[in-house]
Design goal:
By secondary structure, the chain is mainly beta. It has helices spanning 20-25, 141-148, 239-243; strands at 5-6, 33-43, 46-56, 61-68, 75-82, 91-98, 101-108, 113-115, 118-121, 124-129, 132-138, 151-152, 158-168, 171-176, 184-191, 199-204, 207-212, 220-227, 230-237, 251-257, 298-305. The strands form four sheets. Strands 1, 2, 3, 4, 5, 13, 18, 19, 20 and 21 form a ten-stranded mixed β-sheet that branches. A hairpin with a 2-residue loop joins strand 16 (199-204) and strand 17 (207-212). Residues 1-15 have a biased composition (Low complexity).
Length: 307
């Protein structure tokens, strides 16, 4: 394979030039839930980011695989539409070029069990480069090797971060794997209407770990919780839920493995309302540029309230 090189796009979270708010604005009319998983993989001698985008609307599911080019301004994509009336499309193969190298995408989703836009079991999606399986997603590994006749990668792909857009009224749920071992169920619930003061609850694996009262004053903040005795930093910004028209913007949550420097309570300065412009951007988005700890991945959850 030759020497291992880094592409001009450094393998870090900040290298993915992607604005979730801008992208999702095109999908609001159809309330399209999306999940994007970004992996760091070794392809053709370069470390690259591979983005796997799962989408679901009223009509169908779809899958789009994007691979970073060495050229900073280019991304190579392979899109798969999983229409319910086209059963044959749920298993297949496509090839596409990345910097002059052929990549092969294989998938089998015929028996897949879905939780939202993302499958949870009985499926596989993989990428093959030079007969090496450089990315393997799913739980049907034996079928992958039999179908592709590929060999295992010298270096396993690692999930960099997960980004999810969810539509709901009061409750938003997702799954996350903070340490590459066990998936955890995350549920965000809120009460922002009625005569009572707004409140918010964040639970992981059925246990409420964050409970925010007086949410109108603490709509931005952070808290460190323990998940399987390991610290996870939780950041939130739900300004849009309280001060913007329904559906015009989203609440933002970040779940980042590792301990923080601050106390478990939100800083007072961060909880104050600043200006009248409806924008969910906050300083917590800067966690996109953190240096990934080995074996850990970060979750970005964007919760869109609908009436």
């Amino acid at each position: 394979m030759g020497s291992i090189r880094s592409s001009s796009r450094a393998p870090s979270i900040s290298s993915v030039q992607y604005s979730p708010s801008e992208k999702q604005s095109n999908d609001q009319k159809t309330a399209q839930n999306t999940v994007t998983c970004v992996y760091q993989t070794l392809i053709a001698g370069y470390w690259r980011n591979v983005s796997v985008l799962w989408s679901k609307n009223l009509m169908m599911n779809s899958l789009c695989i994007s691979v970073d080019s060495v050229d900073r301004d280019r991304v190579c994509t392979c899109k798969i539409e999983l229409k319910p009336w086209h059963f044959w499309a749920r298993k297949g193969y496509k090839s596409f070029m990345v910097d002059g190298n052929q990549l092969e995408a294989y998938w089998d989703l015929r028996s897949a069990k879905f939780s939202g836009p993302e499958p949870t079991k009985d499926f596989y999606v993989c990428l093959v480069s030079e007969e090496e399986i450089v990315l393997l997603i799913g739980d049907m590994k034996k079928k992958v090797y039999k179908t592709t006749k590929g060999r295992p990668a010298l270096v396993d792909a690692v999930m960099f971060y997960k980004e999810e857009h969810v539509f709901g009224k009061k409750s938003f749920s997702t799954r996350a794997n903070f340490d590459q071992s066990k998936e955890h169920e995350i549920v965000v619930e809120s009460s922002t209407s009625g005569n009572k003061d707004p409140e918010m609850w964040i639970s992981i694996d059925g246990i409420v770990l964050v409970h925010i009262r007086n949410l109108q004053w603490k709509f931005r903040g952070n808290q460190t919780v323990l998940v399987n005795k390991q610290p996870v930093q939780v950041f939130w910004d739900v300004h849009a839920w309280l001060f913007c028209p329904p559906g015009s913007d989203h609440g933002s949550f970040i779940f980042k493995p590792g301990g923080g420097d601050g106390d478990s309570e939100a800083d007072d300065d961060d909880s104050q309302y600043e200006g009248s412009e409806c924008s969910s951007q906050s300083k917590y988005y800067s966690t996109r540029s953190y240096t990934k700890a080995a074996g850990s991945s970060c979750l970005f959850l964007y919760a869109w309230k609908i009436e």
